[in-house]
Amino acid sequence: MNRRLVVLSGPSGVGKDTVIDAWCLRDPLVRRVVTYTTRVPRPGERDGVDYHFVSQESFDRSNSAGAFLEAKHVHGNWYASPLDDTLAMVEAGLLAVLKIDVQGAMVAMERMPWALTVMLMPPSDAELERRIRGRGTETDAVVAQRLQNAHDELAMAPWYQFQLVNDDVDTTVAALMALVEERWPTSS
Ligand code: ADP
């Protein structure tokens, strides 16, 4: 059986969540790898769907046991992408999609070199800014910071096997499906 994992990165606002949601609707075997966090859920967030919300003790235990690819501390809370959940999905025959930042992606590439890796790119700086602002509440300073971060992340695009411009969501999903089919043909 093929082990199918897509490592997906891209600057905040480029459309990663939108694309993964649309992909899940198109293919019932696609599963998003859910991040673990010690932060408290915001209203409307669902445990196991948006994040796995866990206690510090549980997080530390999983971390010590090697269950995570990487753990990082942001604004007082811990976040981690699971290695064991990802492998369990893959071994179950699902197509796992790991949304992860560039540092995490480098670890994922080292640990799972058989993964298909994709950097999602914005059509232009202006369009990325429009999408970031379109989400609503960000101040000018936050938008400027996100755009600066975007440049740093996009500079890592050559490390990924594929770079896809997320112009139209359906086209991007179709392109991802074509890459997956090319790497792991269903007839094989
Ligand atoms: P990310 O997960 O990369 O931070 P989101 O999926 O939250 O990005 O998308 C950011 C914003 O951009 C959302 O308002 C979303 O509706 C919009 N968006 C995403 N993809 C596209 C696209 N291909 N064309 C136009 N708008 C998009």
In short:
42% of the residues lie in helices and 22% in strands. With 188 residues, it is α/β, with parallel strands linked by helices.
Q: CATH architecture, please?
A: 3-Layer(aba) Sandwich
Gyration radius from CA atoms, angstroms: 17 Å
Give the SSE order as H and E letters.
EHEEEHEEHEHEHHEH
Structural class of the secondary structure composition? alpha/beta
Helix % is 40-55%
**Topology-level CATH name:** Rossmann fold
- In terms of DSSP E residues, the strand content is 15-25%
Superfamily (CATH H level) name: P-loop containing nucleotide triphosphate hydrolases
Mean pLDDT: 96
Polypeptide structure, described:
The structure is a single chain. The protein is built from seven helices and nine strands. The radius of gyration is 17 Å and the shape is globular. The protein has one domain: 3-Layer(aba) Sandwich (Rossmann fold), CATH 3.40.50. Helix 1 (16-26) packs across helix 7 (169-183). The protein has 188 residues and is of the alpha/beta class. Bound molecules: adenosine-5'-diphosphate (ADP). The site of adenosine-5'-diphosphate (ADP) has 15 residues, from helix 1 and helix 5. The site of adenosine-5'-diphosphate has 15 residues, from helix 1 and helix 5.
